[in-house]
Design goal:
The complex is a heterodimer of chains A (84) and B (311).
Chain A (H helix, E strand, L loop, with lengths): L1 H16 L3 H13 L11 H15 L3 H21 L1
Helix pairs in contact in A: 1-2, 1-4, 2-3, 3-4
Chain B lengths: L4 H24 L4 H4 L5 H35 L4 H29 L9 H33 L8 H22 L21 H32 L3 H29 L9 H34 L2
Helix pairs in contact in B: 1-3, 1-4, 3-4, 3-9, 4-5, 5-7, 6-7, 7-8, 8-9
Classes of the chains: A mainly alpha (84), B mainly alpha (311).
């Protein structure tokens, strides 16, 4: 189930980071949530979003792209919360 | 094999040492009958040599920097499928740097052996080794672009129609190039020219060891450029694509400029009627474009590395 959540995050990230997505998401979870990527839970998504926004802002100056990414992840978090 | 930072530092040192050797060889080279063609005295010749030598140091260092940056980025993602493909392309770019350095150094060594009995052997070795370095680079790059193509399932890029549309003009170019190549008076040892010849092997041998390999590697280069552009336009990721486009622009430039440099070098004998001004203009233009391309590779690789370094 949680491996599925990781895959969903990677799919959303692919729209922005292409082939680097899997590595990016893995690093974020490992560094900021101190978890194995497959162990990410819906409650972790808000923290993940905060860190992802900060780190993406380092590689692009396009704030719109970063906000768009964050909003898609927020939508994912909302959907995951609705399932519970 | 994962290279470490000190190894990269050594590569720069080797590059600088080689440049000093190249500079000394160039500046102390005897005035060849070939230079007399342009009616230059010793001072004028040294000034012209310096205007090529100094930017050449910049080019070598920039080329080394671009290739190393690219290699480091590829090494950082070597476990992934795009990392393997980009690693293969980075190896090709590194071979192009070897080619560039070897080509310029070999040109500076030959005048010292002008009257030697080994001159023919040296010319043939230079031609074949330079060709092999470039061919290795082109093979690596082509292989890497094929691997990238598999990532985006780009099998549809090479439809029969597209293959025909590419091969027909290329075959025409190949015929024109072969014709121009064999117009080179050096090949037949005619005339009173005392300049160092570009080629010394018999024409049928040159066809096999020079003309055909160059035509094959240029075709690989053109296919690589098309594969790379297709990958860069098709791959997902707004931010990734933007960083990659700079790297691809650099790689396209390096492949194109290597082809242009080789065309210029291979046809040097045929186009020997060029004036000094146009001859220098072509060299300076090539130097500038090569520098720009390696700079672009370095910048693209730096941006891509930034994505991988974020956590």
């Amino acid at each position: 189930m949680n491996g599925e959540l990781f895959n969903r995050i990677v799919i959303i990230t692919e729209e922005y980071l292409g082939p680097a997505s899997h590595r990016f998401v893995t690093r974020q979870i490992d560094a900021h949530l101190n978890k194995n990527p497959n162990e990410i839970a819906p409650d972790d998504i808000p923290t993940f979003i905060e860190w992802a926004k900060l780190t993406l802002a380092l590689v692009t100056e396009d704030k719109q792209v970063v906000d768009d990414y964050a909003s898609k992840l927020t939508q994912l978090a909302t959907n995951e919360a609705g399932k519970r | 094999m994962k290279a470490t930072a000190p190894t990269y530092k050594n590569i720069y040192i080797i590059g600088i040492v080689l440049w000093f050797i190249y500079a000394a060889l160039s500046l102390m080279a005897p005035l060849s009958p070939g230079s007399a063609r342009f009616h230059l005295d010793t001072v004028e010749l040294q000034v012209i040599r310096l205007t090529i030598l100094i930017p050449m140091l910049g080019i070598w260092l920039l080329a080394l920097y671009g290739a190393i940056r690219f290699k480091r980025y590829a090494n950082s993602i070597q476990e992934s499928s795009d990392g393997k493909a980009l690693g293969c392309i980075a190896n090709g770019v590194s071979w192009f740097v070897v080619y560039l350095i070897f080509l310029t150094m070999a040109g500076a060594i030959l005048p010292y052996f002008h009257q030697s009995e080994y001159i023919n052997w040296l010319i043939s070795s230079r031609n074949i080794l330079v060709m092999l370095a470039a061919l290795t680079g082109f093979i690596y790059i082509f292989r890497g672009t094929l691997m990238l193509g598999h990532l985006i399932k780009a099998k549809t890029l090479w439809t029969t129609k597209r293959v025909i549309l590419l091969l027909i003009p290329y075959c025409l170019f190949a015929i024109a190039f072969t014709y121009a190549f064999f117009l080179n008076p050096d090949l037949y040892h005619v005339g009173e020219s005392l300049a160092i010849p570009t080629y010394v092997l018999p024409p049928p041998v040159l066809l096999v060891v020079i003309v055909i390999p160059y035509l094959v590697m240029w075709l690989l280069g053109i296919l690589s450029i098309l594969n790379l552009r297709n990958y860069a336009q098709t791959i997902s990721g707004i931010i990734y694509r933007k960083a990659l486009s700079r790297l691809v622009r650099g790689m396209v430039g390096v492949v194109s400029m290597t082809i242009a440099l080789q065309l210029f070098n291979v046809l040097m004998g045929t186009i020997s009627k060029f004036t000094l001004g146009s001859f220098l203009l072509i060299i300076y233009l090539l130097i500038l474009l090569i520098a720009f391309s390696y700079g672009s590779i370095a910048s693209g690789a730096r941006r891509l590395s930034k994505i991988e370094a974020t956590s």
